[in-house]
Hints:
Low-confidence stretches: none
Oligomer: single chain
Shape: elongated
Distance between the termini: 11 Å
Order of helices and strands: EHHHHHHEHHE
Number of strands: 3
Helix content: 40-55%
Structural class: mainly alpha
Number of helices: 8
Amino acid sequence: xxIRVTLKEVPQGDLKVAIQLDIKPMHRWYEAIGEExxxxxxxxLLEYLEQVKDLTRWxxxxxxxxxxxxxxxxxxxxxxxxxxxxxxxxxxxxxxxxNYHQELERxxxxxxxxxxxxxxxxxxxxxxxxxxPLPTTWEGFLYCSFTxxxxxxxxxxLVKAYDSRTSLEFSGTPAIGSILHALRVRKGPGLLxxxx
Length: 196
C-alpha cells in the first residue's frame, strides 16, 4: 500500500490542548498496552508520563525528543489505534506521499517562499514544540500541524499560484487538490497532516 498522507482536524483546535486533556487516560491506556505487550513500550516515555504533573510547563522545559515522542504516541497510537479521537477531513484522498514529493518542484517554481516552507513541513514533519523537522528516523510516521494562519497562507498561496478557485481543477496535481480541499472543508482552525 505504501506510505500515505492523511488529512485530519486538529483536535480541540490545538494539539497541545488536546494532549493535555487526554494525558491521564492516555497514560492509563499506555500502561495497559505495556502490561500486554511489554516489548512495544517506550519505557522512558512511560516514566515521563508518570512524573509529569503540569503538562503546560513540560511543553517548555521537557526534553524535546521525549515530547515529540509523546505527540507521536498521541496521534499515531492513542488516536489511531486506541480510544483517542481525531477526525479525518471528509472526502480527502489518502494519496501516497510520493504525490506530495512530486508536487514540490511545481510548488518551488510557482509559490512564495512561505508556501514552499509549509509544503516542506508537510513532507518532513514538524515538531509542535521546536517547529523544526522531525528526526529522519521517524520515516514510518511523521506529522505536521498547521495553525489557522498557516492554513490561510497555504490556501491563498496555492489559489494565487495556480489561479484556481476549486480543488476540482487540480486533477493533474492531486496532492495540491487534496490539500486545497482539506483547507476549505475543515471545521476547526488548523490542519493536521500525518504521513504513515
